């Protein structure tokens, strides 16, 4: 399968998966009471926080090791990652249990649903490996089938449980059953493709030495996003927390777009790095970022301009506070179209990432707290925006130094920036014009989104050709 087909296939898979993830809360906000929905979002906040910390770079480092490893060595890298995930999840959930009375927004959830909450969170974190293992193993078709199948099962089960019982307890039962299914599928995959092994202690030391410095930086980045939600849970009402978390539910569209391109290209980048051809590795990353920017730039412009319409139409006007939060997040997502994490992995710059992310976490929390005090709910999102922009500048300087080029040559900054600004201007102008002509605002949003996605698809297809057959 060529790179273009892999990217298109994984991209389509991510779109289906995102669509189902988006549809689920659309139904839940309509069938659950506001306090139950807020509790449901808090469960995902806890699981997401543990999931952001527990991997410590072990999963993403598989993209560095598996494409180059001998077949007998692969099982060791996978097993090491599984054991690490399990131990970290147990440690963190245990800490959350002990500190449960001090967790913002907890409101007795551990007391009412402790065993199920703990079981789901631990199993969810361990099952995260299945979300990336087949792609790191260069079995993209497997990843596509698993992602779509599991997304359908999870969404259908959650919607049924919420519709039929309308209680958090029923939802937790369904989530626990889902993660058990996911773990069973992962066990089947590993047993089928990685039966033989050649265990060496040196591999464990090397794996940890590569993953943990990278992971600490990734953890600090993840905590920037999670800390905002914990801050909102502490400072605002449950309904406002639910609105803030709703705005964050659109973040996966950015992550999925990057995954559909980045994860497919990382094995090729790993081989280029192994040959010592850093220029080819960098070129692959740049071209992949152009593909993401071409498609996501116009779509994010639609989200920013029509945020109020989107939230009211999809999530009901009860959660309209999410609209301005969503606009602040778009500023962040526009920058995140340019992915440099793959370069950090390949160049083993995890230690540098950890070093810069520690003060950036403090900056993010401080700015978010002050933003929440002075600007309300949208201000709580300002910290991660500012910290991410500073982080990208620092990473670009470090990568430029390693590769021996100028910071301006590290990424296609001008192309992506111009596309983002042009998209915002055109979408804003189109909304003004359609409003003046009296077109229903929901119909106008759908029309503009369709046009934006069409333009983005054409541009992305054009840039995709630049990847060339050498990266197949």
Provide structural commentary.
This protein has one domain (3-467). The protein is built from 19 helices and no strands. It is mainly α. The protein is globular, with a radius of gyration of 22 Å. The termini are close together. Helix 12 (278-305) runs antiparallel to helix 19 and helix 18 (413-436) runs antiparallel to helix 19 (441-464). The protein has helices at 3-31, 34-53, 62-65, 71-98, 109-127, 133-136, 140-164, 168-193, 201-235, 238-248, 251-274, 278-305, 307-315, 322-336, 341-346, 350-375, 382-403, 413-436, 441-464.
Radius of gyration: 22 Å
- Our count of helices gives 19
**Principal-axes shape call:** globular
Strand content: under 5%
In short:
It is built from 19 helices and no strands. It is an all-alpha fold.
